[in-house]
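Give me the fold.
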Amino acid sequence: MRETLHFYFTSDLHSHFENWPKIMHDIKEKTYKHQFEKEFYMLLDNGDHMDRSHPITEATLGNGNIQLLNQANFNVATLGNNEGITLPSKQLYHLYDDATFDVVCANVEPKYEAKPDWLKPYKIYETPSGIKIGVIGLTAPFQAFYEKLGWQTYPPFDVLDQWYSDIRAQSDVLVVLSHLGINSDEAMAEQYDIDVIIGGHTHHLLRQGQIHRGTLITAVGKHGYYYGTVTLTYDHEKRSVIDREGYAISVEDEQPDQATTKQLKDLNDQSDETLGRVVAELEQPYPINWSEETSLMKHFVQALRKWTNSDCAMLNSGVLLTGFDEGPVTRKDIHRSCPHPMNPCTMVLTGQELVETVRMVESERFIQFELKGLGFRGERIGKMVYSNVELDYHENSHYVETVFVNGEKVDPHATYTIATADTFSFPWLLPPISSVKEKHYYLPEFLRDILEKCLSTLK
C-alpha cells in the first residue's frame, strides 16, 4: 500500500504579517480538503517567525507570534536566531509556555537552568496508518550572542550525530527543520540519510525542491511571500519513502483569511496601547538626514560612547528612519525611527585597523549601500557619524588622510575601543576588522534603548 503525506511550512516570516493572512487562507483551503479525504498533513515553522522590527512583536516580545501560530494549528516549530537572541533571557525561557504546538531545537539550551518544558531536541509523530515521522530542529549557533543571555549552543552536526541513530531507529520518515542556511543544508544531505530538509536562515528561495543524494531540500525565501509544500509518497510494504516533491507557493494573488486578519487587528490595537507610553518631551524638532551629520545623530552617538564607556563611537545615519517632532515622544515613535534588532557592540581595534575602517565607511559606495540583513531594517547605510573622532581629508578629495581620537592623531600600533552597532562587527561587511578578536556584545539592549535614554535628556 502507498500513502501520500502532506507537509506545509513557513520560514523567515520576520513578522511580515501583511502576508500571513494570505498564507493561512491558502493553507486552510488545502488542509480542509485533506481533512475531508482523511489524508495526513502537518504544519511546520522553521524559525524567525518573529522580528522585533514589527510593533506587534516588539510590544508582546514575541507572544503575539505564538498566538498566531496557535490559532493556525501549527504542529511543530524550531527556533530561529530572532527567537533565540533578540529577547531578554527570561522572555526567551518562557516564550513558548502557552504554545499549543511542539518546539524542537536540538543544539541550544539554557546554561544555568533546567531546560524549559517546551524545549525538545526532536519529536516523533505517528500517522493513523502507523507511519512514524521524526522531526528534529537545528538553529544557527550564534554563541557570542547566546552566551550573553545565559544560553549555550552546540555545533549542529555534532548534535545531529548524537541524535541521528535514535531518531532513525524510531522513525520511518526523517524531517529536519534547519535554520542553518543553504550551505549547511547541502552538506547535511551529503552526510546523512534524511528524507526532507526544510531550510531557511539565509533567505534562499527554491521554487522547486532539490534532490541531493536522495534528500529533498526545500526553502521559501523570506517575509512570507511564499510558503512551502512537501509531498511524500510512502510505501508501507517497503517501509520507505519512494517519491518526494517540494515547492514554494507564492501568495501574491491570494485572498486574506478573515479570522487571521481580525486576530492581527486585535494584536495591533493591543500593541498600540502598550507602545503608547510617553518617554520624552522635546522642546524642538530633531530631523534626520542620511547624507549629513545631524544634531540628533550626534547626540545619539555620544550617548552610545558614554553608555559603553568607550574611547570613541560611530553609527550610521541610516539607522534612524524618521526624526522626531516637537512635543511628546512615545515608545512607538522610537520604535518607528529605530526598528532594527541591533545590539550595541564594542571592538578593540589597532590604530591601523581603525583608520582603514574609517576610510572604508567614508566611501560614497559604502554610504549609499542598500544593506539587507545583519539586523538592519533600513534602506541604506548612510553617512557615518562619530563621537570623539575627527577626520582630516586629503585636499580636494574625500580620502581620509588622518584620523584623530580624543584630539590626538591615531597611533597605528596603539589600541582603541570603539562602540558601534553589532552589524559592523561582521568581517564581510567591514573587512578591515576581520582580524579583530576582542568584541563585546551588549544584550538584551537594542540601539533604540540607548536612543530612548538619549531623547530623554534632550530639550
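DSSP finds 14 helices and 25 strands in the chain.
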